[in-house]
């Protein structure tokens, strides 16, 4: 880029934050967590360091997840977390950066304004927004300007964004609350009720990731605290049981896809049948998800390459739009100035 001001792409997700800087690539990928001392209001840790404190910190330490279901749940914590990540990514910079941040397709104007305000308070010069399904499609290699329809299902940490894209626009979309976080909660509840074992959020997430790629005959070792005697214990759980316990939550995503297809124009729906449904997002690798969608709709399903990075890669590709927007804005300003000068000359005559 010819200009001095940095352009930065940010995937501000429920589970993690990814930052991309032009000519540098992805410079940051850390959990969306901030640890604060409730007595002094000081930041103790952010990102990976803060995530390690979840379930282990003392009573004066509050580990906050400022994003919920893809939108800001704690404005001040989001602002402080974003400020920390920007400083860590940009190091020392004279000029404030321009940010391009992705938001869920169904975000309200209030939610979008909250993201812009948090970014500006964290040190952004200007902030632009891009809808998450568009960014995910770009990152997965979809030509979003194609008049034919494409369906993208972005399964994130807090929500699953389902959208049909055509001609650079989201034609139909829906957000469902079945995603990585709800999968983790289901696994925790299942192990507690079935095996009498208490495990934490991090352990549930590790189990979800561990079953990926395993066969139905495999088992995984799970360690936790026995409910009966409160002593440490471990059990071996068949992969099939984990898959079965997630079925109900996966069906929420399936129902969401059905609802989107119901309001999609017939021509675009036929395009999707001829093509495929593209899964993006870190939780798209969840066991049973791809197979269940294929079974229900009889449409090919493809998990994008590096699904967790699809949104940030797509947002990074869209960074070029910032220069175009700036050029258009500068041209509009020049035209306005010329028009004012012409009016002033006529007035003087």
Question: Short description, anyone?
Answer:
The mean pLDDT is 87. Helices cover 42% and strands 26% of the residues.
What this model shows, in words?
This protein is of the alpha+beta class and 349 residues long. It has three domains: 7-124, ATPase, nucleotide binding domain (Nucleotidyltransferase, domain 5, 2-Layer Sandwich); 140-178 and 253-311, Nucleotidyltransferase, domain 5 (2-Layer Sandwich), CATH 3.30.420; 180-245, Actin, Chain A, domain 4 (Alpha-Beta Complex). It is built from twelve helices and 18 strands. β17 (277-280), α10 (289-297) and β18 form a beta-alpha-beta unit. α8 (247-262) crosses α10. The two termini are 44 Å apart.
**General form:** flat
As a whole number of angstroms, the C-alpha radius of gyration is 23 Å
Give the tally of structural domains.
Answer: 3
CATH class of the largest domain: Alpha Beta
The level of helicity is: 40-55%
Q: Please name the CATH architecture of the largest domain.
A: 2-Layer Sandwich
The total of beta strands comes to 18
First and last CA, distance: 44 Å
In the predicted model, the low-confidence regions spanning at least 5 consecutive residues are: none
Query: Strand order across the biggest sheet?
Result: 3-2-1-9-10
- Bin the strand percentage: 25-35%
